[in-house]
Design goal:
It contains 13 helices and no strands. It is mainly α.
């Protein structure tokens, strides 16, 4: 929602200021300049990146429309899930979790947490970690290293579309200049014609530079920054899971392990202890 509002403010401010300065709207309508700039930008994206990253860029831009789902309510539910999982393991032993971690999609422990089940990587992150703890012979230090390695690889992959969009955004002003130079070439070819025609070609060339800069700093650059923040929020979520899991594996009581996890949540969306306690008791 904020992405759409922001885009409308950018367009409204630029076009509104232009019109209030007695500019003519039809001069800004240069579809061929837009074709040159945007088409070339998409081409550079395809040249520089494999298909998986290009798909990630598209999904990431669409994801900014929804915004981050890592809210206080989300983390409250996740704290409830961790406490329930740890309490079950403490009462029945880690071995009883084997069936749940082998087939998490069919596990009654995870069935009530749709946001986790739908996030396959997070679900396997939890299950693979618990699988190592169940197998025995693996210390908590090694398990922690495995989780950090998994997080590092996943975060690197999640950042690739952000870097790709940033690179494309940085190229837009230069591609705007390319469009402007082509416009000047056309202008030079029309010298000797009516002054109005020459003036029109010069204006079209300048619009090319304008569009390249506007798309870079007004749209694609901010979109890349938004995607980066969503990626960072996802990294913080995996760290939350890591902290809770490793503290339980070390031997902490379920509620204490959940409290360690709660303390790792960013302050602006962190549930209070009372909110966590209420959620945990409500699910008991």
């Amino acid at each position: 929602m904020f992405v759409i509002i922001g885009a409308l403010i950018v367009v409204g401010s630029v076009i509104g200021g232009y019109l209030l300065s007695h500019g003519k709207m039809q001069i800004l309508f240069q579809p061929f300049e837009l074709l040159i700039i945007l088409g070339a930008a998409i081409g550079t994206l395809l040249i520089a990146n494999p298909l998986s990253v290009v798909i990630g860029v598209v999904k990431g831009m669409l994801g900014t429309l929804k915004g981050s789902h890592y809210t206080k309510a989300f983390y409250t539910e996740q704290l409830k899930m961790l406490n329930e999982l740890f309490t079950y393991a403490r009462k029945n032993g880690l071995v009883k979790l084997e069936a749940d971690v082998e087939e998490p999609d069919k596990s009654p422990l995870f069935a009530n947490y749709k946001s986790l089940v739908s996030n396959h990587h997070a679900l396997h992150f939890i299950c693979d970690t618990l699988r190592m703890a169940i197998s025995g012979g693996v210390g908590h230090f090694e398990i922690d290293q495995m989780m950090e390695l998994d997080m590092e690889v996943h975060h690197h992959e999640a950042e690739e579309p952000v870097h790709a969009l940033n690179t494309m955004s940085d190229a837009l002003p230069g591609l705007g200049i390319v469009a402007a130079v082509l416009g000047i070439v056309i202008t030079m070819n029309s010298l000797g014609g009516p002054p109005e025609e020459v003036g029109h070609h010069v204006a079209a060339a300048l619009v090319g530079t304008f569009l390249g800069i506007l798309m870079c700093y007004g749209f694609f650059g901010p979109l890349a920054a938004n995607m980066g923040k969503i990626t960072l929020a996802e990294k913080e979520y995996y760290n939350f899971l890591r902290v809770g899991l490793i503290n339980f594996i070390k031997g902490s009581a379920p509620i204490l392990a959940a409290e360690f996890a709660r303390r790792s949540i960013p302050a602006h969306i962190r549930p209070s202890f009372k909110e966590m306690e209420k959620a945990v008791k409500g699910g008991a």
